[in-house]
TrEMBL record:
Domain AMP-dependent synthetase/ligase: 13-429
Protein name: Acyl-CoA synthetase
PROSITE patterns cross-referenced by the UniProt entry: AMP_BINDING
Species the sequence originates in: Nocardioides seonyuensis
GO molecular function, one term: long-chain fatty acid-CoA ligase activity
Short name of one Pfam family: AMP-binding
TM segment ranges: none
Length: 648
């Protein structure tokens, strides 16, 4: 039987039957890993499924989960699916309006929430979500004095489920068997860069056909480990942690806290990892800072080892076999330089590593391959279970996203749009048939909305099709392409490009790498705003923009830029929960700054409103410089630097 003909609950039952005492999930609490076996996992799913039934959840309903990744998140998901319901994930950082939008669109009656913070959000918006009847919380700290009858501890629902199950013997097993691969399993929100996110419905068949295709390329097995730290509301985490996890029996580990993720990652040493570019970029930034702070001998040893690793990786990426000399040198380089860095990053056992959601800079790609991490690009979107195209081992080109996975067809339409067709294509948007119809062609292909082309069989993604622009001279270009060129710098966290006749940019510095650079330059500063406004910082970023411009056609080179006084924040609606820029919000909020950039002003002032945690609000006037690159000459020390260092 094909994996695509199964369901998540039946796969869980199979794992519990064949591997009852092996660890399925583990969570770190108070510094100690707490394991849950496959049998215990299945039993808790059954109890909570009975508990949901006692609350009135029925086949066809949707149960929402709001909170950080914990075993209870997956127990709630599998329990809902076992009795014929679907689960819709809500990002734990979501604000009131976003939560209301999801709950009302999905007509959700039961929400499983993590802790007091999330319960307080639901208390605040309950009157705006008329279908909401029960909130089940799985972290009781701080909730002891809450008396609302519709608030229920997770353990109490499990206990009620055991009683309900005793009165309905065999009912749960009947529901699991009654489930079909075409039932809706998960509802994931789209990125929502230009409007409210849509709710994409994904069936068991959609997700498991994708998992089957991926493991046919990159095999995974029951001995492999995966650390689940990215939101389970994100399709990427559902793709690996849930679909591949249940299909292949992976052990999932949940870090204790966001602040302990890096240490917990090192302890577990996962075999497979999928993260958006910002995670890989952050890892490289950490390495750069640590190496820059090391002594000259350690820097020299790492530099020599990295050169060997980079040379061998370049050959392997082209499908060539390294020479015996190179293989011997790699053993020494790995022992003295590369393996310690992998260990520090928690990547000692890594066999499969993926990135997706946005382009990753070639420098970042080459760094991880040089230290021995098999990092590959994934291309997809919520509507096709997050994965349609992937790099294949020994044929990885940094400018492409790879080739279609088995079972997926790809074509480029006459107007340059990437279109996809596979068993993983979604079942439509909840409550939005018009958008569903717009997402599909008449002959059954998914419209991605992305522009791209094929280069010797590999897909190259340009940008969102609607964002491809034309200069007055007729040159077509993508703002995202220019932005990514700038963001390849370790000193740049975000860049937003504007204009057609003249290209200008709003840039956000990376506080870690720029802060480290400032310390090395003996440059004192107090706040992010202070650091971003310093002339020395402007000259540093000017060198980086100049370097990006060299690789761009003359007509689309950046002419002027400014450094924003703050980081872009999802709580300010400036970027999505998956760190994609909401361009329409930026254009509206920073209209005066963008206009000054376009006019070529030297400086511009803005009044910024700051809301503090105690509820007070203050306004401050901020003066921002605009840097014109017309006469800029790169600094004498701006020669090419090694990828692994911010020093020149």
């Amino acid at each position: 039987m094909s994996l695509a003909d199964e369901t998540f609950p039946r796969l869980l039952a199979r794992q519990a039957q064949t591997r009852p005492t092996e660890v399925a999930l583990q969570e770190k609490l108070y510094g100690i890993w707490q394991p849950i076996t496959w049998q215990e996992y299945a039993e808790r799913v059954r109890d909570f499924g009975h508990g949901l039934a006692s609350l009135g959840v029925a086949r066809g309903d949707m149960v929402a989960v709001l909170g950080d990744n914990r075993p209870e998140w997956l127990i709630a998901e599998l329990a809902a699916q076992s009795i014929g319901a679907a689960v819709v994930g809500i990002y734990p950082t979501s604000l009131d309006e976003e939560i209301v939008h999801v709950l009302t669109t999905a007509r959700t009656r039961v929400v499983v929430a993590e802790d007091q913070e999330q319960v307080d959000k639901l208390l605040k918006i309950k009157s705006l979500a008329p279908d909401l009847e029960h909130v089940v919380f799985y972290d009781p700290h701080g909730l002891e004095s809450y008396t609302q009858e519709w608030l229920l501890p997770f353990g109490d629902v499990e206990q009620a489920g055991r009683s309900w199950g005793a009165e309905h013997p065999g009912w749960f097993e009947e529901q699991v068997e009654a489930g079909t691969p075409d039932d809706i399993a998960v509802v994931c929100t789209t990125s929502g860069t230009t409007s409210r996110p849509k709710l994409g419905q994904l069936s068991h068949r959609n997700l498991l056909s994708m998992a089957e295709s991926l493991v046919s390329i990159d095999p995974l097995g029951p001995k492999d480990r995966f650390v689940s730290f990215l939101p389970l509301a994100w399709i990427g985490e559902q793709m690996i942690a849930v679909a591949c996890g249940l299909a292949q029996g992976l052990t999932l580990s949940f870090p204790e806290d966001a602040s302990t993720q890096r240490n917990d990652l090192r302890e577990i040493g996962p075999h497979v990892m999928f993260s958006p570019p910002r995670i890989w970029e952050s890892m490289l930034s950490d390495v750069q800072v640590r190496i820059d702070e090391a002594g000259w001998l350690k820097r020299k040893v790492f530099g020599l080892g990295y050169a060997v690793g980079d040379r061998v990786a370049a050959k392997r990426l082209r499908g060539k076999r390294p020479s015996p000399v190179d293989r011997g040198l790699l053993v020494l380089a790995d022992w003295f330089a590369l393996a310690p860095v992998r260990n520090q990053l928690g990547l000692t056992r890594i066999q499969r590593a993926y990135t997706g959601g946005a382009p990753l800079g070639p420098d970042v790609f080459s760094f991880f391959h040089a230290i021995g991490v098999n990092l590959k690009q994934i291309y997809g979107q919520t509507e096709i279970c997050g994965l349609a195209v992937v790099h294949i081992d020994d044929d990885i080109r940094f400018h492409s996203v790879g080739v279609p996975i088995p079972g997926c067809e790809l074509r480029i339409s006459d107007d340059g749009e990437i279109q996809l067709r596979s068993p993983a294509v979604f079942q439509g948007y909840v409550g939005n048939p018009e958008a569903t119809a717009e997402a599909m062609t008449e002959d059954g292909w998914l419209r991605t909305g992305d522009a791209g082309y094929l280069d010797d069989g590999q897909l190259v993604v340009i940008d969102r099709a609607k964002d491809v622009q034309t200069t007055p001279t007729g040159t077509r270009f993508s703002s995202a392409f220019i932005e990514n060129k700038i963001k390849f710098s370790p000193y740049v966290e975000e860049a937003v490009v504007f204009g057609t006749a003249e290209i200008v940019a709003m840039i956000v510095i990376d506080p870690n790498t720029v802060g480290s650079w400032a310390e090395g330059e003996h440059l004192t500063y107090t706040t992010f705003t202070d650091l971003a406004g310093k002339p020395e910082t402007y000259r540093l970023i000017a060198d980086e923009v100049h370097r990006a411009n060299v690789d761009l056609p003359e007509e689309i080179r950046v002419r002027r830029f400014m450094l924003l006084f703050k980081q872009l924040d999802p709580d300010d609606d400036e970027i999505t929960r998956t760190r994609k820029v909401r361009r329409n919000v930026i254009v509206e909020r920073y209209a005066d700054l963008i206009a000054a950039l376009g006019r070529g002003d030297d400086r511009v002032s803005i009044t910024n409103t700051v809301a503090y945690q105690d509820g007070t609000v203050a306004k401050r006037e901020i003066d921002i410089a605009i840097f014109d690159l017309a006469d800029h000459q790169p600094s004498e020390n701006s020669k090419s630097r090694p990828v692994w260092s911010t020093r020149r």
